[in-house]
Please model this.
Amino acid sequence: MANTVDAGPLNVLLNELRLPAIKVLWPQFAEQSDKEVGRRRASR
Model:
């Protein structure tokens, strides 16, 4: 089961919380997480 994130509200939330660096980096975090989950599933 894949979790999806609606980027629009997430960007607004990160702006409101004054986390612009995380706003810029979160797509990289999500991509890395997807790769790690894929590796774990492949190793089973």
Q: What stands out?
A: The helical segments are 7-16, 20-42.
